[in-house]
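Entry 14. Structure prediction run on the chain below.
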Amino acid sequence: MSVLEHPRPEGLLHNAGFSQVIVAAGKRTIYTAGQVSIDERGNLVGADDLAAQTEQVMRNVGLALAAAGASFADVVKITTYVVNYKPEHRAIIGRARMPFFAKRPPPASTLVGVSALALPEWLVEIEAVAVVD
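Output returned:
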């Protein structure tokens, strides 16, 4: 497992939902593709439900990480893309994501509102960067 430090910079807001900065030491860096809310057969999971789609996306991120020998404990950065973002989406996504980072400091995070993803039924896409030994 990598060694992750989570400094708390003076002058920056401490947010329980993400870390402002992470220092990672490890031998390998893993980048996942953006994951969307489809199952292994390509079926949409959670049509028109941002929370359900976020949960499936996170499960898919976990599968991608595991294939590379990593877990959510190794994630240093995630980027989330949300279609037609509204401020209330942040809490929905945060609650759906929280169990995947339970009992550890969350990774650095960026949330981006977009007009569309590759298919119109997809509401959210998440990519991750992890560091492992």
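The first strand starts at residue 3 and ends at 5.
Filed with the rest of this week's runs.
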